[in-house]
């Protein structure tokens, strides 16, 4: 992966103090740009918002613990296949995730940071999609 993990951690840390605004921005961005994914989510997004960001924090904390990371991503990927998430939905979520991080990271955001997040999200999504495929056959 062509990612500088220290840049991932520092940019994620720069975004964290913005709290619940961050996830609100992410879902607004996602649903504005990809209204087709809205029906996949339950009507109550409040809990879901926290869980997605908590999961992202756990992934960021385990970027160097490869076995733990892969196991987490495989479990997430299998569950997402069950929610009806398709491979084609992953780039949409990745674009909104990066737009959200860019919006809140301020000066911590640079081209190298963006490149690192794109590489990390590529690994996240390909691992989740592959695990989901195993189950859906
Ligand atoms: C970085 C990648 C992602 C992470 C970390 C993530 C995280 C999570 C977490 C933690 C949950 C809570 C339930 C569970 O743990 O299984 C969840 C649910 C869900 N995610 Fe994701 N997700 C990601 C990508 C996606 C993508 C690409 C989609 C496609 C639109 C998606 C759609 C959903 C849906 C529909 C649910 C269920 C919501 C509900 O119960 O209403 N997620 N996600």
UniProtKB/TrEMBL annotation:
Sample GO molecular function, one term: FAD binding
Residue ranges occupied by any Globin domain in the UniProt entry: 1-133
Entry's transmembrane regions: none
GO BP field: cellular response to nitrosative stress; nitric oxide catabolic process
UniProt KW keywords: Heme, Iron, Metal-binding, Oxygen transport, Transport
SUPFAM superfamilies: Globin-like (SSF46458)
Similarity comment: family membership: Belongs to the globin family.
PANTHER family from the UniProt entry: FLAVOHEMOPROTEIN (PTHR43396:SF3)
Name of the protein in question: Flavohemoprotein
């Amino acid at each position: 992966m062509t990612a500088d993990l220290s840049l991932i951690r520092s940019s994620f840390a720069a975004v964290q103090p913005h709290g619940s605004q961050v996830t609100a921005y992410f879902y607004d961005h996602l649903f504005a740009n990809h209204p087709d994914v809205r029906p996949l989510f339950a009507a109550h997004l409040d809990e879901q918002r926290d869980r997605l960001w908590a999961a992202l924090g756990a992934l960021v904390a385990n970027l160097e613990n490869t076995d733990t990371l892969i196991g987490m991503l495989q479990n997430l990927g299998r569950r997402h296949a069950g929610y009806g998430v398709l491979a084609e939905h992953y780039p949409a979520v990745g674009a909104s995730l990066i737009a959200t991080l860019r919006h809140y990271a301020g000066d911590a955001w640079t081209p190298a940071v963006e490149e690192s997040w794109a590489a990390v999200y590529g690994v996240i999504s390909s691992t989740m999609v592959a695990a989901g495929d195993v189950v859906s056959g």
